[in-house]
Amino acid sequence: MTRSPVTFEGQLCRAWNAGKPTRAQSYVPPFYDALDFDSYRLMGRARTARAFVTYPDHYALLAAILGEVRAGCGPEIDEILINSRMPSVVRLPADFFGTNVLFLNDPEDEAVRLAKTGVQVLVIRERFVRHTVEAADNGLSLLWWNAPEDGTEAMQRLATRLRGLGIAPAAKAAA
Amino acid sequence: MLRLEGIHYRPVPHLPVAERDSGENASRIVGDLIGAEIAQTMTAHDSPQVDFVMAVSTIMDMPFVSGYLSWPLIAAAIARHTPLVPRGFTASYECAGWGFALDYARRRLPQGGRVLIVVADLNVLDISFWRKNDNWGPSGFGVSTVLLTLPPADQVALSVNVAKSVQGMGEYCADLRKWLSTSEGGRANVPFLPPEMAGIYSHFLPKDRMMRDLHGAWGHCFGSDTWISFIDEIDRGDIVPGSVHCATSASLRGYWALSDVVLDQAILSGFRAPLDAAEREDAA
């Protein structure tokens, strides 16, 4: 039996690097013909929130979150699984390579599978809106299986650090 | 070294129009296709034992992030065809996805095991950007199933990389040239590119060790280029069971994978008949 994961629920509340000049780097998904417009109509039906990040910002923010997770949750994590949200438009930063990180769609099942074998695994599930065709709500969930005894305290310290990135704890998680 | 036991590729030029009825339909169609390929591949092999299954893609991006496609629904559809449901799906590493999946398998199965990689590039909603593109010319869509034996982690000759400069293809070619200079592998495949872009290969790579660039016959088939090359070379008798070769893949964004593979003595490989929407709807 695997213990429940230590969790954090947060919400991105402001633009990445708010108040600082940044390149626009806007990206419009490629619409070329009538069928494309219909396809994007079909895909764009889900509710979405306001976008606070461009595609390049998205990876910069994610790299910053990964840095905080590694600093805050210690080097003992065996595997970090991040939900894959493509397209990316830009290259993943080097922080995500040569290490124990894998991007997967819906990584929770895999995390539970690993956790059952005693692996210390942390899932970063982010839903930061980059374009309104996306079904996303700017939420961030962290789930840490087989966390050490002081995992809850470490996650609380991490939550404080994430505020600096514009991510506030969700009301439910603070209760 | 990784041992290749089975390689098959199914071209799927178009999905049935029912994919446009709803995201649930599209997910079921994708899952049925992938599940049928896995089932057919495993039927041909003596042992049903597989320790790790992963699905990768390049082009299946916006349909997922928009919520149109759902991986859990796809996985449920696959499960109706085979118990070998992929434990995950990723498009984050683009055409090099199979390499990153194998790298993860090496990490999580350090003792080794039998691994099935599914490379699925299905043009859900028939997006024109993916049909043909200035970056790679015409595309080809389909599903590869690749069955391998993964040796203990310290015996896997696999390298997964990310470019440091904007010249990702140049870095990939330089790395492959270096790899070939020390590898025992005979021949290496390259991503399929039209002739006007393939000059980079003749500039960097030893011609006598390269598999053909099959862009003219297949278009660019993303992560499946690798496996189409291997099937083609086996069909021609240019590579034979027991020999060692280098499987490679490189992505537009600058990710690449290189791996030595030995062809199992009983390797099963081949192209499956194209599954086009019209035929599927006739059969339904």
Automatic annotation (TrEMBL), chain A:
It comes from Sagittula marina. This is Uncharacterized protein.
TrEMBL record, chain B:
GO terms for molecular function: acyltransferase activity. SUPFAM superfamilies: Thiolase-like (SSF53901). It comes from the Bacteria. InterPro entries: Thiolase-like. This is Beta-ketoacyl-[acyl-carrier-protein] synthase III N-terminal domain-containing protein. It comes from Sagittula marina. The lineage of its organism: Bacteria, Pseudomonadati, Pseudomonadota, Alphaproteobacteria, Rhodobacterales.
